[in-house]
Amino acid sequence: MLIDFDPRAGLKALTILGLAFASATAVAEPVSLREAQALAVARDAGGAAFAAEAEATRERAVAAGELPDPEARLGAVNVPADSFEFGREDMTMIEVGVMQRFPPGRSRSLARQQLEHHALHFDAEAAARARDVRAAVARLWRELDYLEATEALVAESRDRAKLTIESEAAAYASGEGRQAELLAARLELFEVEEMLIERSRMRATARAELERWTGPLTDARVPAPEPGEPAPLRVLRERLASHPMLRGLEHQAGAAELEASLARERYKPSIGVDLGYGFRQGRDMLGESRPGMLTAMLTFDLPLFTRDRQDRELAAARSMRRGAEARREDAARELDSVLAAVHTRALGLRAAQVLYRRDMLPVGNAAVEAALASYRSGEGTLVDVVGAQRRLLELRDKELRLGADFASAVAELESLTGELP
């Protein structure tokens, strides 16, 4: 039987297969912590909201620096009420005019600068939000690293315990083992299996929390490298001054200062220029056409009664400025306190991690070897072996927990002091 082959269809099929393979390869591309942080910041709705508010405020700043729209006038002037004839009286006319008002002093320039400070405040809020997002992703990433590592440890311990128990079960079946020891060892194994189930549940939960920020991730995650020692507290405090929260509060204080300047400008009068032209109909006593009438007027405010208006506005603006400065000082103290506490915690976690690696884990390994040697010689019991293995598992798990907590503390220090990109 002959089969017709369409070259174009074959090419299309090969193209589809190639795209599918490329897509699968792209999906499996490993993702690092830094990449996940950049992805989370890019898709964060909170940061996008601050950026939009900053953009909107800058647009308002441009508008605030412009003159008010001019006002046009069109009307009839001095129309006789008995006849409503436009050509009978000399002063009757159709008048058109335009008036432009000028705000007092430097009000427009100051209003624009004030809104620009507000826009910079929103920029600082967006930067602070980005730091918080990066720190949250780093904490969850480290937690997921810890849970995956400890899950592998528990699985390894379970497999080792299974082999030991199978050996003891064979000995018991041949009449050489003791049932009580075998049952006790099996109970220890059940506890390890329960621990494995719990670790799997916690890993799934941590992954779901992480993907809330990053979106769906592939399984090809790159474990984050272990961070180095944190910088001295003195150095970190110097960097703390550039924290976005403090910059935002500085811009708030700047906006409040400009509000006080605006309040002082309101003691000055605003000025209006009014120009008009009147068209007259009819003819004068000599039979000539009546000429048009030009009107020019200058208007201005009279800020004479300032006690309950301008004075109050200036006092309010000064109070707002003091409040903004006080909030900035309070935030600086709070951030300094948090920085000192996190730095102390990081150093303590690092010291404990070193203690586990240098002293406790070698002792735990030696205890397992001693329990095995004693069991093989007939002096120890299977329960002693399984118990020593369980204690070693707990020590290794604790060392991993300390490492994850230390890395999270370092990520928090980076968020506070601007080390994150």
How would you describe this structure to a colleague?
By secondary structure, the chain is of the alpha+beta class. Among the domains are: 40-67 and 106-267 and 304-334, Outer membrane efflux proteins (OEP) (Up-down Bundle), CATH 1.20.1600.10; 69-102 and 269-302. It is 68% helix and 8% strand. It contains 9 helices and 4 strands; from the N terminus they run αααββααααββαα. The protein has helices at residues 7-27, 33-42, 45-64, 107-173, 179-214, 233-240, 244-265, 310-376, 382-417, and strands spanning 71-77, 93-102, 271-279, 293-300. The protein has a 4-stranded antiparallel sheet with strand order 1-2-3-4, with no helix packed on it. The two termini are 66 Å apart.
Write a concise keyword list for the protein shown above.
Outer membrane efflux proteins (OEP), 421 residues, 9 helices, disordered N terminus, four-stranded antiparallel β-sheet, alpha+beta
- Average pLDDT rating: 84
- For the record, the CATH architecture of the domain at 40-67 and 106-267 and 304-334 stands as Up-down Bundle
Question: CATH first level of the domain at 40-67 and 106-267 and 304-334: which class?
Answer: Mainly Alpha
Strand percentage lies at: 5-15%
Number of strands: 4
CATH level 3 topology of the domain at 40-67 and 106-267 and 304-334: Outer membrane efflux proteins (OEP)
Task: Using the CA coordinates, give the radius of gyration.
Answer: 40 Å
How would you describe the shape?
rod-shaped
How far apart lie the N and C ends?
66 Å
Q: Helical element count? A: 9
Encode the helix/strand succession as letters: HHHEEHHHHEEHH
Q: What is the CATH homologous superfamily assignment of the domain at 40-67 and 106-267 and 304-334?
A: Outer membrane efflux proteins (OEP)
> How much helical structure, as a percent, in the residues?
55-70%
